[in-house]
Amino acid sequence: MEKKIRIKDIAKMAGVSAGTVDRVLHNRGNVSDDARKAVEKVLEQVDYKPNMHVSSLSLKRKYRIVVTTPQFSEGAYWESIHNGIRNALEEYENIKVDLHVFTYNQYDIYSCRNVFEKISSFDMDALIIGPTFKEETIELCNELEERSIPYIFVDSTIEETSPLAFFSADHYKVGRLIAHLITSIIPEEANIGLLQAVRTGDCSANTTILRKKGFTDYLYEGKKNNQVITIPFSVAQPEENEKHLSSFFKNHENVGGIVVMNSKGSIVSEYLANNGIENVKVICMDVTIPNSAALKNGKIDFLIGQGPEYQGFYAMKTLLEYLIFRKSVTLENYMQLDIITKETIEYYKRFNNLLR
After folding, report:
1. Which residues form the HTH lacI-type domain (predicted)?
2. Start-end of CATH 3.40.50.2300 domains in the chain
3. Are residues 109 and 136 in contact, defined by beta-carbon separation less than 8 angstroms?
4. 3-state DSSP call for residue 201?
C-alpha cells in the first residue's frame, strides 16, 4: 500500500509545526519566510496534492461522531477496532471531528441499557455501534432513525435495523469454520467442550447466537457424533472459572477439544497448562495478547482472525465520506476470516503496520 503523506509528515520533514504547514497550504498569514520556504520545498519533493474540496468543507464545520462498543483492555479485540477508527481519523486529519466514545460492559445487559439510554438523546451527526444485545440495539437504532441520524455497525449486524453499513465477520460461517477445524483434529467420538459466557441479564450476545447456530448446523449436516458440553465462564467472577473447568473434566471423559467462540481462549489454555492436561485441542477467536502467547506456546491450536482493525478503519472512513460527500455506501461488508497457527502468527499482518 502506498503511504499517504500527511500534514504531520510534512511538518516533521520541514522542521515546523503541523499548524504552520496548514497555514502555508491554505495561504493564511503568520508564517515566516524561512518556514514557508522549508514547507514549500518539502511539498515539491513529495509532490503533495491536497484535496482542496475536502479542506474547504472541513474548515466550515465540525462533525460530532459517537462510537459505542464494549469496554476493552490493552491488547484486546475491541481495542483493535478502536485503533482502526483512530487510524481513519488520522488519514482524514483535515476533517474536524469531535469524537465521543461510550463503552459498556458486554457481560451486563443493564450496563448496555444505561449507556444506550444516554446516547439516544445525545447531540451527534453519526454513530458507530459495536452491538452485543439485540433488543437494546434495536431500541437505540429506532430512536436514531426517528432523528435521521446515520449509523454503522462494527463486529456484527442486527436484524430489524437499517444501518448505513456494517463491517463484520459472517458469524454463522465463523461457527461452521470452528466446527470444521475442531472435528478435523480430534477423534470422531471425542467430546467437545464449548466455553460460554455468563452474562448479567441472562442474554447471549448476538455474535454468540449466530456462531453457535453455524457450529451446530455443521455438526448436524456432517452427521458428527461428538457430544458438545457447555462450560460456563464468568468475567465478573474469574475465580469461578477454574471450578467450572475442573467440574467439566471431572464429569466427562474422552474430551478431545474445547472451542471458545469469543476472545477468551486464554482462560482454557491457562487451565490446561496449570493442570498438566495434554492432548486437548483448543480453538478460539481473535489475536489478542494472551491468545497470541498461548498459540505460540502450543496451548491453543488455531485462532480465527476477523480483521477488527479493518472493521474500525473502514467504518469511520465510510462514515466520513458519507457525511461530507454523500458518497454511496455498500451495506454488507464482510471481513475475511484468517486461520492462524503458531507457525504463522509472526507473519500475521497487523493493520497498524500497513498504515505506517
Report:
1. 5-59
2. 59-169+307-335, 171-305
3. yes
4. coil
pLDDT digits (tens, 9 = 90+) for 74-84: 889 999 999 99
Place of cell 452491538: 131
Q: C-alpha cell of 193?
A: 467442550
pLDDT tens column, 62-71: 999 999 999 9
Q: Structure pTM?
A: 0.79
The answer, yes or no, to whether residue 27 has pLDDT greater than 80, is no
Q: Cα 133 from chain centroid?
A: 16
Confirm if 77 and 305 have CB atoms less than 8 A apart: no
- Per DSSP (E only), the strands in the chain are 63-70, 97-104, 126-129, 151-155, 165-168, 191-197, 228-233, 255-260, 281-285, 302-305, 332-334, 338-340
Question: Which CATH superfamily groups domain 7-50?
Answer: lambda repressor-like DNA-binding domains (1.10.260.40)
Per residue in 181-221, pLDDT (tens digit) is 999 999 999 999 999 887 776 566 788 889 999 999 999 99
Question: In this structure, are residues 333 and 166 in contact, taking their beta carbons and an 8 Å threshold?
Answer: yes
> Parallel, antiparallel, or unpaired for β 151-155 and 255-260?
unpaired
Helix-strand-coil split of the chain, %, nearest 5: 45, 20, 35
β-bridge pairing 151-155 and 165-168: parallel
Which of residues 258 and 351 earns the better pLDDT score? 258
CATH superfamily of 59-169+307-335: Response regulator (3.40.50.2300)
Q: How far apart are CA 346 and CA 76, in angstroms?
A: 18
In the sheet that holds 332-334, the strands lie side by side as: 97-104, 63-70, 126-129, 151-155, 165-168, 332-334
Task: Evaluate if residue 355 carries a pLDDT over 70.
Answer: no
Backbone angles phi, psi at 90, to 5 degrees: -65, -40
Q: For the domain bounded by 171-305, which CATH number is listed?
A: 3.40.50.2300
